[in-house]
Write a structure and sequence with these properties.
By secondary structure, the protein is an alpha+beta fold. Helix content is 27%, strand content 20%. It has one domain. The chain has a five-stranded antiparallel β-sheet with strand order 1-2-3-4-5. Bound molecules: zinc ion. Zinc ion binds next to strand 5 and helix 4. This is Elongation factor G-binding protein C-terminal treble-clef zinc-finger domain-containing protein.
Length: 162
């Protein structure tokens, strides 16, 4: 994704109040992020660990952000839980349940969406791990390229649903 500044990020939220967006703390590695290898920017708030954020720029160049809330303890890597964004079945990281308020009136009425996500939003790194070669997928990099596209599509459609 294209690099974003803090101001754009704070202004991008579709389901957070201005006050909530103002209170967020950027990721600790914000100044050294490798934007090119991210389909979306996701992080846990260093000061409010229950809070997570996903920031995504779609094909039309619109940047939208989600405020999420972790709802239960993370499940260990290798358990049955699968992140709904990267859908990696051999996840090297923990997956947990998050809820996010719907945008607009639905959200003001208390409507939320739940989803399983990598607890530290490692999806972009996960999809770049080359799978072992097999007869069906002789070129691991082709698989990686497909996964990157699929991750991008899933994040886009999730934000559309919110
Ligand atoms: Zn993931």
């Amino acid at each position: 994704m294209q690099p974003l500044n803090e101001k754009t990020i704070r202004a991008s939220f579709i389901n957070a109040s201005r006050q909530e967006a103002k209170k967020l703390t950027p990721p600790e590695n914000f100044n050294s992020l490798d934007w090119e290898s991210l389909e979306y920017l996701g992080w846990r708030d260093p000061k409010m660990p229950q809070r997570g954020y996903m920031i995504y720029t779609n094909a039309n160049g619109e940047t939208r952000g989600l405020l999420l809330r972790a709802t239960e303890g993370a499940r260990k890597a290798g358990s049955a839980a699968m992140c709904e964004m990267c859908r990696d079945v051999t996840l090297p990281c923990a997956v947990g349940m998050f809820t996010t308020r719907r945008s607009g009136q639905a959200g003001r009425d208390g409507d939320t969406l739940g989803t399983l996500l990598c607890t530290r939003f490692e999806c972009s790194a996960n999809v770049r791990i080359a799978p072992p070669k097999d007869p069906i997928n002789p070129d691991p990099m082709v698989v990686v390229a497909q996964r990157i596209i699929q991750l991008d599509e899933r994040v886009n459609s999730f934000i559309e649903r919110v």
